[in-house]
Amino acid sequence: MTTVDMTPVTDKGTPTNPRRRVYRPNAKYIPIIATLSLLAIMYSSGVANYENFGDPSVFVNLFRDNAVLLVVAVGMTFVILTGGIDLSVGAVISLTTVLTATLLKGGWPPLVVLPAVLILGALIGAGQGAVIHFFKVEPFIATLAGLFLARGTALTINQQSIPIRDDMWKAISEYRIVLAEGVVTKPIAIVAMLAVLIAAVTLAWTRFGRNVYAIGGNADSALLMGLPVGRTKIAVYTLSGFCAALGGVLFSINSTSGWALQGNGLELDAIAACVIGGVLLTGGSGYVWGTLLGVLVTGLIQTIINFQGDLNSAWTRIIVGVLLFAFIVLQRLVTRKAR
Amino acid sequence: MGEQSPVLEMTGIRKVFPGVVALDGVDFRMFPGEVHALMGENGAGKSTLIKTLTGVYEIDGGEIKLGGVPVRISGPLQAQQAGVSTVYQEVNLCTNLSVAENIFIGREPRRFGKIQWGRMRRRAAELLARLDLDLDVSAPLSSYSLAIQQMVAIARAIDVEARVLILDEPTSSLDASEVEQLFRVMRQLKESGVAILFVSHFLDQIYEVSDRLTVLRNGQLISEHRVEELSQVQLVEKMIGKELAALEDLEDKAQRNRERAAEAKPILEARGLGRTGAIAPYDLTIHEGEVVGLAGLLGSGRTELARLLFGADKADHGELAVAGKPVNLRNPQVAMRQGIAFSSENRRTEGIIGDLTVRENIILALQAARGWTRPIPRKKQDEIVDKYIKALQIRPADPERPVRNLSGGNQQKVLLARWLITEPRLLIIDEPTRGIDVGAKAEIQKLVAELSDGGMAVLFVSAELEEVLRLSHKIAVLRDRRLVEELENTAGVDADRIMQTIASGATS
């Protein structure tokens, strides 16, 4: 048998490649820095090229115009961080708006309607999460089924656009918050930013938030480390369903109407915003701040096209497509380096 | 250590899987402050026993006592709460999270529900310092080597106040100095009273660090010893066991062919072929009609050696010649074109496609060799398949039956048939007889002998020494990922002789 050399090895703890320690922690911020730079470049080129683009209200209005997308994308961020996907959110929005409008028309008190539709959205999400966890169904398929169910239900209730005449809804819709001289915003923008803030705190500072990252990093390991994988998974879909319903409520406030074709394809916009904001589709990496930046980027594209005036708004889609592609490739490069 | 009472006592543990008794009344005990090695060849029941202890499997019979109290372990979390922590071979942590988080996730220090990152990082650094590690605990785990990740996993495990720490092949991907570091940590933990269950395929490591060992074979307890009471040779004997050879005169056949084989042309010559971390550089020559057996314990590098010869892994040094011409086996397709076939050890995951029929499985490799643009006519397929079903006595003899409905032995034959119809010059078979019954084993061995009579060279990889001895003209012995000895299978060579080499590594 060999004798054992007991000389202590002192510096074995340092990584073999000293460069790594400097480089690695930054790697996870690269996508978000890229998105931030992109946003800055787009904004300054807008200011340079168009009159009045520099007006603060242009930027502030981004939050108002994209409040629904932002809220939905926040929920989507949680789902994608676990490595899942939620395709049902657009349909849940339409169901929420239709249901809200129908119930209010039927004379339900608004303070009952509001919690009712939010709970319904959360329940739809929880149901999908349960199917995904207990029956090991792919999130793509489970939430696709949810999409059809929700959209179909909305269409069954009413195919027409239903106007909302409720006083509370109208009051909120018409309320303006003055941020500064000449800069006003709507309550829905505030709600959206609150959602971002709460999500950011949850992800960074709570066990639930860290479990979300752990599951996205390696679900099998998370299970072996004794983390509540099933509970967390169901929770993120519940959260996403809730956010979608909240988005639907914001939508109904903004347009004071409910329509079954509202929010069509919004789930894809939300996914795109997450990806552009650097949330890794395979899970485990990304920040809700990135998602916020992603939403602002898509919003800013739309604004620039509006300012340009002679471009079809379909160009928004084309540019978003190009950006998506670029960011997916960027993500791939970053994760490959990180290996 | 004295006569303490055991911290863990498992008695009469029984675990049955459909058709297999994986554990048959196994007793196992561990004392506080000892390193206890669990020994046994593949399929002996080691990992099943560990999984019953970590809550991955529930036992079908028997009793588990921790600290004298009977416990029922129904999941990984329950196991941890009961004081059983596990560090798996493939590190089960989340590399996207920081080092500190990996140690504390699920048990983060909190105030008013908010994680206290500063306190968590400090405690992580303290904990790692106890293991003589100085890491940047806020760096993502992925920025550290596998060895460090393993240490982090151990740090996590011991912070749960583990009474029993299971290290399942922790050293298989570590280099020598990293292993030394791990052992230092193990000795420290031992002194603090933790009972460590250690699994490793490296005998030297077992003898270096363990106090006691338990040997399992075929799901049964063979014996428990203090390490100093048992020599390495005795240990190998206990692990492998003496198989009752109720087989025909294959051995004579091997003897008879030996002279001829030695004169035959070499089919394959490897010079200094190796791959870092998988197998040390080796020389090996295989002649026409020769059966070369690869012997060694699991993890000794048998499969790794074979995979280089098929291009399944790329060698990073040395050279290889097939039929006298140097070749570079970049990938398995190149090897197949050179007439080399490889029947994999994992027939379930790498070989057999369960949902395809027997016919489709057999045709697969031939079709791949021809390219998908030239399909084999159905009539030709049927002819070939019928011929091999008869020749190999595949049962049931129904070419249209999905392969997953066949027994293990028959699946193995289908796999062999697949490679045989490509008419290879060299057939590499990795563990063809593992997990199949004695009758099927005999048939497959007979087939190998017939193929060699027909001039085919065969590289036969098997954990069963008796089998290797019976079939091979030449035996290459592996130990710790190194080819340590190559011997002609003459009358003087027997299982003891090979075990000696496996156990000591001595080349005499």
Brief summary of the model shown:
With 339 residues, chain A is mainly alpha-helical. Helix content of chain A is 72%, strand content 3%.
Secondary structure elements and their pairing?
The complex is a heterodimer of chains A (339) and B (508).
Chain A: H1 18-27, H2 30-49, H3 56-65, H4 67-81, H5 89-105, H6 110-134, H7 139-157, E1 162-163, H8 167-174, E2 177-180, E3 183-185, H9 187-205, H10 207-217, H11 219-224, H12 229-255, E4 257-258, H13 266-276, H14 288-308, H15 314-338
Antiparallel strand pairs in A: 1-4, 2-3
Helix pairs in contact in A: 2-14, 3-14, 4-9, 4-10, 4-12, 4-13, 4-14, 5-6, 5-7, 5-12, 6-7, 6-12, 8-12, 9-10, 10-12, 13-14, 14-15
Chain B: E1 8-17, E2 20-30, E3 35-39, H1 46-54, E4 61-66, E5 69-71, H2 76-81, E6 84-87, H3 99-104, E7 110-111, E8 114-115, H4 117-130, H5 146-159, E9 164-168, H6 176-191, E10 195-199, H7 203-209, E11 212-217, E12 220-226, H8 232-240, H9 250-263, E13 266-275, E14 279-287, E15 291-295, H10 302-310, E16 317-322, E17 325-327, H11 332-337, E18 340-343, H12 347-351, H13 358-370, H14 378-391, H15 408-420, E19 426-430, H16 438-453, E20 457-461, H17 465-471, E21 474-479, E22 482-488, H18 495-504
Parallel strand pairs in B: 3-10, 3-11, 6-9, 9-10, 15-20, 15-21, 18-19, 19-20
Antiparallel strand pairs in B: 1-2, 1-4, 4-5, 7-8, 11-12, 13-14, 13-16, 16-17, 21-22
Helix pairs in contact in B: 8-18, 9-16, 13-14, 13-15
